[in-house]
Amino acid sequence: MAEDQQTITLSTTPEFLQVSCNEKRDQFLFMASLKAPQYRSETRAPLDVIAVIDESGSMGGEKINLCKETLEFVIQQLEESDRLGIVSYSSKVTERLPLTKMTRDNKEKAKHTVHLIHAGGGTSLYQGLEKGVEVIRRRKPEGKNEVASILLLTDGQTTSVPRDVDGMLQELRFPFEDAPALGSDHMSPFGKLPMVQQMPSTESEENTILQMPTQYNPLPRSQPRNHHQGRLVRVRSAIEHPIPCSINTFGYGADHDPNLLKGLADAATGVYYYVAKNKDIPEAFADCLGGLVSVTAQNISVKIRAENGAKISQIFTKFKKTEIVPETEFELSLGDIQSEEQRDIVMAMQLPELPSEDVQWVYASVELSYFNVLTCMMESVTCQAQLERQTSTSSSRNFQLDKHYNRLYAADAMSRATLKGEEGEYEEAQKILEDAEKLIQASVSASDPFCIGLIEDLKICSRGLENSTSFYGGGQQTMMNSVMSHYNQRSTNARMPSQMAYQTSARSQMQSNRSKK
Question: In this structure, are strands 246-252 and 147-154 parallel, antiparallel, or unpaired?
Answer without folding.
Answer: parallel
